[in-house]
Amino acid sequence: MPDTTPSSYQPALDSRPAPAATAGPTPEQLTLRRRFPTSLDLRARARRRLPKFSFEYLDGGAGADTGINRNWASLDAVEMMPRYGNVVAPPPTDIELFGRSYSAPVGISPIGGPGTAFPGAETYLARAAQAARVPYTLGVLSAITIEEAAELAPDVIWLQLYRFARNEHKIGLDLVRRAEAAGIRTLMLTCDTPVRTTRPRETKSGIVNPFRLTNRLRLDAMTSLPWMMSLMRNGIPRFVNLRPYMDGGQSLAEAAAFMRREQGGAFTWDEIARYRDHWKGPLVLKGVLHPADAERAVSLGVDGLVVTNHGGRQIDALPASIDSLPAIAAQVGGRASIILDSGVRSGVDVARAVALGADAAFAGKAFLWSLGALGSRGPAHMIDLFKQDLSATLGQLGCHTVADLRSVKVRHPGAYGLDDFADDP
Ligand SMILES: Cc1cc2nc3c(=O)[nH]c(=O)nc-3n(C[C@H](O)[C@H](O)[C@H](O)COP(=O)(O)O)c2cc1C
Predict the structure, then answer these.
(1) Which of 111, 110, 92 is CA-nearest to residue 101?
(2) Can the peptide bond before residue 319 be classed as cis, meaning omega within 30 degrees of 0?
(3) What are the residue ranges spanned by the domains of the chain?
(4) Cis omega before residue 110 (within 30°)?
């Protein structure tokens, strides 16, 4: 079994006085914590409340959900050894990432078309992230513009881009220019969707590609009062960021034709280098599982990596991202910030990721479950659960700060080590 003990492992945690976490919970937080104490409680309620197609879109994975289950099982298998006698109050969860301070090493992963999951999702996610001071990654395929998102979440907004390669990346590079003008500091390029794959649950629910509101979906939507109310409040979701580049009409059919023409594939290394030249702020590459890819990204000047298998949504044979993390941390740790996503459901999972070398952990589905379960109040509750659980985990393990997690002894049975890649360039 590879040695997965982080290189900074110290045999004993020190006995500094523990700084306590700030401000107690509000009455609303206490009620929600009692009714929905975990993200899986939110998932169960979302399943009951959302139209079927919407839940299947946000919750379903590739194949038979094997990749999703592997993400969960691999995180669950990671044990952390506690040390007692030095913590007497729940520790704070604050961190710094790319020169900004955040209230926890937890962020919201980019979601394309989150309005299908819950209309208005982007607005609710952006507001909650700004209020709680955690990163919110706006997906380029969103129903609010870059400029609107930057206004809603000026201190925490990041932007994720897919590849718009026609005409020498005219659209992609204009989106980058707009992001900079709007004050967005961190840009994320997704490289792990080179081809379109199938998610059977989504297909069986009646969702067609390109998306169309068929009669079947309309009938399904009408079974969910919360979803319909949010649709009426927020309007039909459209990819508004792309409007300036669409000539003429913006019907669903025209938008679909535009997407087929303009968007596709995933960023190549040459293209990543090109975006690096254009983007002066922190640049993050999302979709790294192999340490050689991590090395290549860093050699091109990428500042951060998202170690992810796209939440088990591409194919279900990819390694769990938590199992790839130790080798990537060993390869590029200290030279790039590392974010772990895929399967993160709790503060304990966040702690596991940080203990194994990540600087933060992001979640996608957990935030969508929260919207499905609680509507606009959901994301704030999900962030609260992550932070509360992380603080409790730190205290239980004998950590005074998030950084102390790197000194925790970890057992990680599924981990890849660098040795596993010795014969693999
Ligand atoms: C409904 C849905 C849509 C997504 N859309 C995007 C997207 O547009 N761009 C992207 O880079 N990742 C996208 N992802 C992947 C997430 O950013 C993230 O990698 C994944 O959700 C993490 O796994 P988790 O859902 O288990 O937390 C999407 C995920 C979901 C669930």
Answers:
(1) 92
(2) no
(3) 27-202+258-421
(4) no
Query: Residue 2's pLDDT band (boundaries 50, 70, 90)?
Result: very low
Q: Which residue has the tokens 């979601």?
A: 111
| Locus of tokens 């709790």 | 346
Over residues 158-190, the pLDDT tens digits come to: 999 999 999 999 999 999 999 999 999 999 999
Q: CA-CA distance, 263 to 165, in Å (whole number)? A: 7
How high is the pLDDT of residue 253? Answer: 75
Question: Which residues have C-beta within 8 Å of that of residue 226, sequence separation ≥ 6?
Answer: 49, 50, 375
Q: What is the pLDDT of residue 4?
A: 38
What is the position in ligand 1's atom list of the atom closest to the CA of 190? 11
Sign for the pseudo-dihedral over CA of 107, 112, 118, 122: positive
Q: Write out the two tokens for 286.
A: 């999302």
Write out the H or E segment, with its range, that includes residue 258.
helix 252-262
Alpha-carbon distances of 240 from 102, 111, 230, 249, 317, rounded to whole Å: 28, 14, 18, 13, 34
Cβ–Cβ under 8 Å, residues 383 and 105: no
Phi, psi of 235 (to 5 degrees): 80, 170
To the nearest 10 degrees (0 to 180), the angle between helices 321-332 and 66-76 is 60
Beta strands, E only, 201-348: 283-288, 304-307, 337-341
Dist. CA 306 → ligand 1 center (Å): 12
CA distance 348 to 104: 13
Which of 58, 111, 344 to mutate to test ligand 1, by most ligand atoms within 8 A of the CB atom? 111
Report how far Cα 172 is from the mean position of its chain's Cα atoms. 21
Closest listed residue to residue 166, CA positions, set 242, 277, 72, 63: 242
**Dihedral angle at the C-alpha atoms of 131, 134, 135, 140, nearest 10 degrees?**
-40
pLDDT at position 19, please?
53
Confidence at residue 194, expressed as pLDDT on a 0 to 100 scale: 94
Average pLDDT of the residues in 234-252: 83
Separation between Cα atoms, residue 49 and residue 79, nearest integer Å:
34
Q: Is the Cβ atom of 341 under 6 angstroms away from ligand 1?
A: yes
Where are the extended beta strands (E) located within 177-231?
Answer: 186-190
Amino acid occupying residue 325: L
Q: Which residue's CA lies nearest to atom 15 of ligand 1? A: 310
Predicted model pTM: 0.94
Catalytic residue (choose from 310, 381, 400, 412): 310
Which CATH number among 3.40.630.30, 3.40.190.10, 3.20.20.70, 3.40.1800.10 corresponds to the domain 27-202+258-421?
Answer: 3.20.20.70
- 290 forms beta bridges with none
